[in-house]
Amino acid sequence: MYDDQPENREVDNNQFESSGGELGKAEGIVKELGAEISKGKLREGDRLPSERDLAERFNVSRMTVRKALQTLLGEGLLNSYPVRGYFVVSPLQGLKEHQGEMIYSVPGMGELRLGGSFNEYMKRLGRKPAEVFLDPPALVAPNEEVAEHLQLSAKELVLKRYRLQLADNIPYRLIESYYPSDLFGELLTLTADIGTQPLFKWLQEHHGLTATHVREDLTARLANTYERGQLRISPGAPVVAIERTVSAETDRVIEWARITASATLYTFRYDYEIQL
Amino acid sequence: MYDDQPENREVDNNQFESSGGELGKAEGIVKELGAEISKGKLREGDRLPSERDLAERFNVSRMTVRKALQTLLGEGLLNSYPVRGYFVVSPLQGLKEHQGEMIYSVPGMGELRLGGSFNEYMKRLGRKPAEVFLDPPALVAPNEEVAEHLQLSAKELVLKRYRLQLADNIPYRLIESYYPSDLFGELLTLTADIGTQPLFKWLQEHHGLTATHVREDLTARLANTYERGQLRISPGAPVVAIERTVSAETDRVIEWARITASATLYTFRYDYEIQL
DNA sequence: GAGTGGTCTAGACCACTAT
DNA sequence: TAGTGGTCTAGACCACTCC
What are phi and psi of B186, to 5 degrees? Predict the structure, then answer.
């Protein structure tokens, strides 16, 4: 049922020129509050007036104020808490104090990569890591997608781990990861310890197989209902979704994972060398 | 004015248990429409019923339907076009057919990196690249942030380029980039040609300076008004914001750029090697 | 002229918390 | 009890396009 496949092209997307004014009222409020934040009139940690007060101040309905505030939430300038109010998060940065993703150093840098250990990384940052298994780890039949990424037939079982990682008790990311069962099946008996040691070092020691290559495909979108619940994200706040494929030196795929992380809280840092 | 710095922690953020029901009505609609999409009842390219029809179908006000549809827009499952309606974008993937970011291969892979040329990369993908300068390139006094990232004093001028890149006429990303003027000042006279050749190869040939290292810090957030206009993004759709620092072999910073790209359209791929 | 999405209004009730 | 954010309603007008 293709309906000529619409594109963003020529739809003059100026949805803010209706109702006579030059800008929508909500957009005007976004601009004004945004300016107050960047000028320092509203500072980090400050509480904003209530929605009802702002509605009165801007001579506008409460829904219009809410729309403006939702925009500012999505831009990461505000956080909201039921009953308590809206709070200024940061003038420009300040969110970026957590490094959300492992820093992958490349050979030329002389640094060491962290071997895939969330715990080691978080401790190094001085944060308290925690991990919750949302499902018990299990051997499952892979669905089509998983089988394809792991380069397995649909009949071979895989080890599935589905967990939520936290740092300082703040939900950090959801990880749904799959591993070939012939390599990692025995980890089933060690679930309590998983994560306390670098997984790929364990693989190297027990199977002589060295993880060498990582590919990450990264997209951003809004969280769905389930993710919002697990990550405790405000509606309208985006998440970063990463599909990660880890290969061994033999080019065998040894892990495929889907990672979902709250985007407003964290920065993902990638380092790499240029080959001209 | 710190107000004890609120956190996401214990606020049981279940904003969907109000009004008696178990789920909010809007969330129920998201779930139902999402299921119809993933089950194939609504297929890629299909047009959804109008907001008013959906409101009647779900026995709900139009604003509630709109809220549900905004969520689906943000998840990337729908696109909306004024006057025309809402259209199904993809069951699960399909957006990912464009590779949005350059693929940085690492030394061990034996592949070649692309030297910083947007044009070469897009042509290789069979897409028609285009570039629009939103400001004419100019030598400007750096603000504090730029001076710091480029490791310059605020008195030294920098070359600023501010441009919008398009692929197949679709806005692709905004790039605000800064370069030390002693290295790139002469490019001012070549603006028409900039981008048609790999910038870092040009640097190597004219100054004997080789770009070696890239660091990217990546966050996702909702677009602000200006970005929405330039990138022609639906409200509620996220963008990926990248801060890129490029250094030469001498550790001198030769470029600092802030990149803003529509997130729903593109996937960012990163490849790198593991050093255990 | 009918229908679309985008915007806005002026109310309402809920669950929750601080006083 | 008063005030908060979260949710929802039942209308309204606009600019625009398709017929």
Answer: -70, -15
